[in-house]
Write a structure and sequence with these properties.
The chain contains 8 helices and 6 strands. It is globular and about 75 Å long. The chain has 3 domains: 11-40, no CATH class; 47-80, no CATH class; 87-286, Rossmann fold. The chain is α/β, with parallel strands linked by helices and 288 residues long. It has helices at 2-23, 26-35, 56-59, 68-80, 111-126, 140-150, 184-201, 221-231, and strands at 87-93, 133-137, 161-163, 213-219, 249-254, 260-267. It has a 6-stranded mixed β-sheet, with helices on both faces.
């Protein structure tokens, strides 16, 4: 028995020395550096679980003491504020339009833009989603896109909501800066409105929501890109680094815990390649 114990101890010590030496191996150190495992996590990479200010613990009065009745009260109040289901928010960029004239009234979809919207509507129909809400920016190109999509999906047009908060704009000065585009007045005017739209539509489900919900929002490129950055807790200034096609589908899911994931980002894989566009045509000659 003593010989076995000595053998086991010796073997254990040998293995410990071996693994300790491996941890000091320069090649292993390179691997650690590549994964950043030896560095502290950047503050901007940490997830704020109460980003929508609907974490149950932030909505309930804290415990006054450790008495059983107070603990029961606290736990009961927490349970009343816990979300039970996920929210799916599907964002559609309007179809291609011609930027002519001095007002939004003249910014109608091109023929190609109408076809793009039709393909998107068909794709949404194929997904078989039962929509709880459909909301569209009140700008002409978004309204026309929404109308075409609603002709393809199972949703009552009379229930379509119109929202001025979703209008196109400049949400925040981008990083890296764009030298030829400095709309300071636009950022000042549009930023608060677009942020208000984000807070209106992006949050975890209410506790009374018993099943997953699906909200369709037809809007604009800048607004959608800003929403994606805000929802995923990326720096909001990064919005201009993202490019999404006309009539594309972006799908975000907010779980009951408040975690957010992205399923599609600017998806247009269902659309024929010849109809793919993302820039606004300035010349009527180039419009299909």
């Amino acid at each position: 028995m003593r010989k076995f114990t000595a053998f086991a101890c010796g073997t254990g010590a040998g293995l410990a020395a071996y693994y300790f030496q491996k941890l000091r191996d320069p090649q292993l150190a390179v691997h650690n550096s590549w994964t950043n495992s030896d560095r502290p996590i950047s503050e901007c990479a940490l997830w704020d679980s109460n980003w929508d200010f609907r974490d149950p613990k932030s909505l309930v009065r804290p415990q006054k003491n450790d008495l059983p009745q107070e603990q029961n009260r606290y736990n009961s109040d927490l349970e009343k504020h816990v979300a039970k289901s996920a929210r799916h928010i599907i964002l559609i960029r309007h179809g291609e339009y011609l930027d002519v004239g001095d007002s939004d009234d003249t910014h109608h979809l091109t023929d190609r833009g109408r076809l793009q919207a039709k393909y998107t509507g068909q794709r949404l129909r194929e997904l078989g989603i039962k929509w709880d809400k459909v909301i569209a920016s009140n700008m002409v190109r978004a309204q026309e896109t929404a109308d075409i999509i609603l002709n393809q999906i199972d949703y009552d047009k009379a229930k379509l909501k119109h929202c001025s908060y979703l209008r196109e704009g400049a949400p925040i000065p981008p990083q890296p800066p764009v030298g030829h585009w400095k709309p300071e007045a636009s950022f000042f005017r549009d930023g608060a409105r677009i942020e208000a739209a984000f807070r209106r539509y992006f949050h975890r489900a209410l506790p009374e929501q018993e099943k997953e919900s699906y909200t369709l929002i037809v809007g604009h490129g800048n607004v959608i890109r800003y929403f994606v950055c805000r929802a995923l807790q990326f720096p909001a200034e990064a919005w201009l680094r993202i490019s999404i096609n006309h009539a594309s589908i972006t799908w975000l899911t907010i779980s009951p815990s408040g975690n957010v994931s992205i399923k599609y980002l600017g998806d247009t894989g269902f659309m024929p390649a010849k109809y793919l566009t993302h820039r606004i045509p300035r010349d009527a000659k180039n419009v299909v």
